[in-house]
Amino acid sequence: MPSHYKVKEYCPLVFRNLRERFDIDDHDYMNSLTNKQPVEIDSPGRSGARMFMSHDKKYFIKSLVTEEVEQMHHILKQYHQYIVEVHAHTLLPHYLGMYRITVNDVEHYLIIMRNVFSPRLTIHKKYDLKGSTVDRHASDKEKSKDLPTYKDNDFIRDEAVLFLGKDTKDKLMTTITKDAEFLASLHLMDYSLIVGIHDCDKAEMESAEMVQRAKEGEEDSNEEENGYDDDQNGMGGVPTPPDSPQLIQAPFNGDIDNTIERFAMKCSDGNDLITLCDFNILSNIVSFRNCQWKKCLSL
């Protein structure tokens, strides 16, 4: 630990109320952030901010610059009021806490957000959509990642279609319209709609492969215990069994849990789960005084 550090929580009562409205228990929240070291991940934006994920994959931790802290203070009252008005039914990021950590007289600013994606489901494809085709394609460097973030032109090239069904589509478009109108009222723009796709068929195949590998590992372990492992040299040594996987959440049984898959919805064809969220509205803020704009997404 550093020799000297301080932690300041900004607007604790407001963020506590936001956590309540987003159905987040304060005890679980603190355990997620403090029980183990967060893991640093690639930042999806170009702001240079550092991004971390809590060990249980429930929360994002994002570094802020002082201008972003000021902007968050500026919009927090309206953001809280909007969350109350829509009963927390929104695709906007769920902001849960903002902190200043001072280490050896150096200040660091952090904001906590709910993870857009479910901690228990694999995302097989991801898009960052802005409703524009200008310079909107994933770079070769991005495509080389294990889970690249594709963009609008990639979405069009893939001929991607989201089969949501009429009722789900109507609810989604109502939510997006309200969110967009709220952001426009604050003169905020340059945000994205993040789309994550969980392929149920592919996930089933991956699960079967994992079970098969586990069986093979168990057979290898049994052989070692029966004296067939050359490294034991007949000395009767007992090998250490592999660590058992620890489930962070209950296994997915096909039903969406609103406390875990907060941004998820089922496709009407039953083959995919879609996660949607208006993302990155804080790190790409531009103020307009005499400009009106509208953003549309066709599904």
Word description of this protein:
With 299 residues, the protein is an alpha+beta fold. It has two domains: 1-115, Phosphatidylinositol Phosphate Kinase II Beta (2-Layer Sandwich); 117-222 and 256-299, 2-Layer Sandwich (Phosphatidylinositol Phosphate Kinase Iibeta, Chain: A, domain 2), CATH 3.30.810. 32% of the residues lie in helices and 21% in strands. It is built from seven helices and eleven strands. The chain has helices at residues 12-21, 26-34, 66-85, 140-143, 152-157, 166-185, 200-225; strands at 5-10, 39-41, 51-53, 59-64, 95-103, 106-114, 125-129, 149-150, 192-199, 264-266, 272-279. The strands form two sheets. A six-stranded antiparallel beta sheet has the order 1-5-6-4-3-2. Strands 8-7-9-11-10 form a five-stranded mixed beta sheet. The longest helix is centred in the C-terminal third of the chain and has 26 residues, at 200-225. Mean pLDDT is 78; it is low at 228-248 and 282-299.
Explain the layout of strands and helices.
Blueprint: E1 5-10, H1 12-21, H2 26-34, E2 39-41, E3 51-53, E4 59-64, H3 66-85, E5 95-103, E6 106-114, E7 125-129, H4 140-143, E8 149-150, H5 152-157, H6 166-185, E9 192-199, H7 200-225, E10 264-266, E11 272-279
Parallel strand pairs: 7-8
Antiparallel strand pairs: 1-5, 2-3, 3-4, 4-6, 5-6, 7-9, 9-11, 10-11
